[in-house]
Amino acid sequence: SPTIGVLALQGDVREHAVALAEAGALARPVRRPEEIADLDALVIPGGESTTMSKLAVSFGLFGPLRERVAAGMPVYGSCAGMIMLADKILDGRDDQETVGGIDMTVRRNAFGRQNQSFEADIAFTPSPDRPLHGVFIRAPWVESVGAGVEVLATLESAPHEGRVVAVRQGNLVATSFHPELTGDGRVHEYFVDLVRDAV
Ligand code: GLN
After folding, report:
1. CA-CA distance, 138 to 117, in Å (whole number)?
2. Known binder of ligand: residue 68?
């Protein structure tokens, strides 16, 4: 089975580790640069992307992470993890850094005050038989994508109809929502399959 790290600076690390194990991967929390080197893939969990950015700077992680991403390591980012994979962010802090790698612009805390947290059924194109239940917690949305980015899910009902909430570019996958909180393993299975194809 592939070894998939879960970036354990901050956020819901344990839930991702459980979901990855259920999808057949060996999951391990990682937070030091030398722990990144021998991973087959990485998950960046939800949490608070500004805090994650600060901690990643102080742990010296951005260099090794960007190198591995550039070399093709698969990474899946959920919510704050989506922000970490975006080449550009809107409404970020001035000093906020991202790993980048997906040619997209992501808006932080995009869904507005009344709706900062909500749930919605969404069609996930890799698993079209039945919708996924999306849990959105102060989530970002994808404001725009470059030509190389595949859209995997958009919201289908008002007031946020048409908003892009899941994407893939190469070996990088990102979702605005939190599949690790729903007991539905399809996003993690999709990612583990991608990792198996990549290694
Ligand atoms: N609002 C958070 C951020 O900007 C993301 C929230 C989450 O990951 N649940 O980083």
Report:
1. 6
2. no
